[in-house]
Amino acid sequence: MNVALQQKEKLQGVIREALLRAQSRGELSLPEIPEIGLEIPRDTSHGDFASNIALVTAKKAKKSPRDVAAIIVGNMEAEGFIEDVQIAGPGFINFFLSNEWLYEILKVIEAQGLAYGNCSHGQGEKILLEFVSANPVGPLNVVNARAAAVGDTLARLFRAVGYTVGTEFYVNDAGNQADIFARSLEARYQQIDNPNYPFPTEGYPGDYVKTLALRLKEEHPNLLELEWDERIAFCKKWGTDQMVEWQKADLANYDVHFDLWFRERELHAAGALEEVIAEFDKKGYLYTNEDALWFRSTDFGDDKDRVIIKSDKTYTYVTADIAYHYDKLKRGYTKLINIWGPDHHGYIGRMKAAIQALGYPADSLEVLILQYVALLRDGQQVKMSKRAGEFITMQDLVDEVGKDAARFFFLIRSPESHLDFDLDLAVEQSNENPVFYVQYAHARISSIMRQAEEAGVTIPTAADVSLECLKEESEIALMKKMAELPEEILIAAVQREPHRIARYALDLASLFHSFYTHCHVLGEQEDVRDARLVLAKCVQIVLKKILHVLGIDAPDQM
RNA sequence: GCGCCUGUAGCUCAGGGGAUAGAGCAUCGGACUUCUAAUCCGAGUGCCGCAGGUUCGAUUCCUGCCAGGCGCGCCA
Fold this sequence. Notes:
- Among the domains are: 96 residues, Gyrase A, domain 2, CATH 3.30.1360.70; 78 residues, no CATH class; 118 residues, Orthogonal Bundle (Isoleucyl-tRNA Synthetase, Domain 1).
- By secondary structure, the chain is of the alpha/beta class.
- The longest helix has 26 residues.
- It has 20 helices and 15 strands.
- The protein is globular and about 90 Å long.
- It has a 5-stranded parallel β-sheet with strand order 7-6-5-11-12, sandwiched between helices. The chain has a 4-stranded antiparallel β-sheet with strand order 1-2-4-3, with helices on one face. A 3-stranded antiparallel β-sheet has the order 8-9-10.
- The structure holds one RNA strand.
């Protein structure tokens, strides 16, 4: 139930009738009635709702916008819920409504609870959201942290608007990186007893590999009895398994839980790559050149054709990824959404080509490009290098600023904006971080509720109080803001813009803090007190709801 | 060279075909005997990168240019 939308539709009806009446009276001559735009204006002096219909139709009506507006308003029938209609600015029609519709919001929130703002827009369509998908060769970094926050919140948004969502982390545990990692681990294992044992030149230098080697030695002291190939294969499996567990634990600390950790090696084991190659071959999309097998992806709009089997007879990364995407589609997902870094932008064309070659529409794959995170310390960008083993991990970040602040920091920015993360600021000002501002609003409400109950005051329901007591500016503003939630959630989901919800959270918290300062709840006259208790309770529900969407705790005390 | 992202207040960033372009931080000044001052109230700040075009109206859409970031492998 979307009260704001209902009001809009009612007002659109009022305007449409006025237009038709004006037409029949010959005051206006329009070839057709266009869609009637209505919005909730930022500036409250512009009313509860404003329409630009007169500006849009002025030219076709061959009159000035203000004249058209006057004609429309002159042909409107009086309606009880409309208190005033004004023509303003270049020709806007501003509607001032009685507060009834705002009181209705409170009843709806009370009835729906944390489901308030949800809708069935997605109609159960199956969306698969794949994100992070970092190589299982090291700890997660801050870019992964950004992707995790954005992906997780998008998943929550999609669920809120009625999609069936699966979240997946693709574990690339069968490629070159995993091989190099396995050799690095093996070398560290050897070095425990033989410090001069050579370390691979391209190996992973991080200390965590040494730590891992010690654990490996403890669990498997006789590893060196295996032949080289078997030993490396063991290190690869055991090592990537350890990394996956580590990454899982870090993400759990961050309140991100994937429905499935999809292992690349299982694709290989199941023959999925051969299957997809056979599929391409059958359709004639393959050819051989210079001992390599190529996929003619240019048939589907890619810049160039892509190698599927290298001249050394091994597969490329894309081959396994195509098999993975094929697997997703075969599992019945009709929309695959991947979150990638900007370095993978050039990769979109070949994946869309592959999807089409497999007989699925190009837009069943959607790729969101999340821009990079630059870490700043002492005003300087922190240079990070996996090769040199120098980086700030996601866990470092969470340890420093906390899960809630970290998530909020990533979610407040639009996904396509480059993000400067000032570590000094995040540490120094962690108490001033905007996330606390939002959480504090929630805690304050909890405190009011607690004290009301201690004083023997039962928290009333909307039906039992005089809602017309709610008429202060700060009270009206709160109700209006809450009325916008359903649309905010829908837009954030449809446009893949989770930062809208973080902004909304700040706005709502700000309005509440203002209300808190200007209007007391406890200690007021009983009817006022009860109405405000209902209002505060509703704000609490909405705050809890959006904090949940953001994956941030809603504390009752701070 | 080609492709993608970005360019808005001192800083970090929202917004977006329409009404005086917004927020936080920073700066300055006020507000706690009363539900948590992690709060509130007030004050100043803008060639919305530049130049054209579309439009009744452009900061928003289109084109070109400039600047920064990132890609363009038989790496993943």
